[in-house]
Amino acid sequence: MEYRQLGRSGLKVPALSFGTGTFGGTGPLFGAWGTSDAKQARRLIDICLEAGVNLFDTADVYSDGASEEVLGAAIEGRRDAVLISTKTGLPLGDGPGSWGVSRGRLIRAVEASLRRLGTDYIDILQLHAFDAFTPPEELLSTLDTLVDSGKVRHVGVSNYPGWQLMKALSCADRYGWPRFVAHQVYYSLVGRDYEADLMPLAADQGVGALVWSPLGWGRLTGKVRRGMPLPEGSRLHDTEQFAPPVEDEHLYKIIDVLDAVAEETGKTIPQIALNWLLQRPTVSSVIMGARNEEQLRQNLGAVGWCLSDDQVARLDAASDRLPPYPHAPYRYQEGFARLNPPLV
Predict the structure, then answer these.
(1) Within-domain flag for 231
(2) Which among 188, 136, 124, 189 has a CA at the least distance from the CA of 161?
(3) Any alpha helices (H) in 16-102, and if so which ranges?
């Protein structure tokens, strides 16, 4: 397993990490992801650790805390061998104190996550979504207290607008508070919006990307095909309304190139889609999910090899979309391109 620095921090994370939204799954969304109990989760974690994957990502909102509880039970006795990333901020109820990242809510949420996880520290705490009601000074000073207390070691965000992330980083620098070193983002061959604003920001400010849904919400498994119904068992049947939208023909255009590259490499479509992400700028770790051992072992086959430059270029071309204003001129007009060179 390859290990990479998490943004501008001293923490090394594996190129592939494991998302535990499948642990203890309940309800229409998380139940469709997976329902692994502690015994099943322990087996999946065993396989991950054997392969060098030691970062496990969860959130308090996953099945109302059940994912954290199952993860905590599955790592019992080997806490020092793993890195735990969890998230908070999304609603866990209807009350005014059940969502957001105000000082009191954030402290309560961390304490509750620590109890569910059965640990006394969180390696990476991420804010699950931007909270427009909490001033950055209140948020960051609270995170500073949590880091100083030893309950949190590194901080990050998820699904943040670029201007709010930059505002928070500037505030942290002004007061000497912990900087966000991770941004958990949606990024895949069928969803490249991350590249427009957030990737250049991450490269400039030292924020490592932790990629969620790298297979485009199950669309890049190789089972979704032109002119065919969704395969039986696909989570898209029950959860497509929660997924980032993708035009069918755009997806099938990408699948056509993935099929060709799979034939050339002998790799599966998911392995190719994950490997493409691992070669992108600012990506620290790609969070893979798996409902069973077979899926996990297949995903682990995404490392240890690299797509050729030609294969990457063909996948880039097939998945490319005109970025939103004002980013398009930087890519398609010569004068702007000279002022804004591509990331490497």
Answers:
(1) yes
(2) 136
(3) 27-33, 38-51, 66-74
Residue 93, domain extent: 3-245+269-308
Is pTM beyond 0.85? Reply is yes
Gap between the Cα atoms of 83 and 33, Å rounded: 22
Query: Which tens digit of pLDDT belongs to each residue from 96-145?
Result: 888 999 999 999 999 999 999 999 999 999 999 999 999 999 999 999 99
From 3, 62, 186, 332, the catalytic residue: 62
Task: Copy the structure tokens of residue 98.
Answer: 């059940």
CA distances from 232 to 223, 224, 238 (A): 10, 10, 11
Look at residues 36, 59, 27 and name the one whose alpha carbon lies nearest to residue 124.
Answer: 59
CATH code at 159?
3.20.20.100
Question: Do residues 311 and 234 make contact, with C-beta atoms less than 8 angstroms apart?
Answer: no
Is 252 designated active site?
A: no
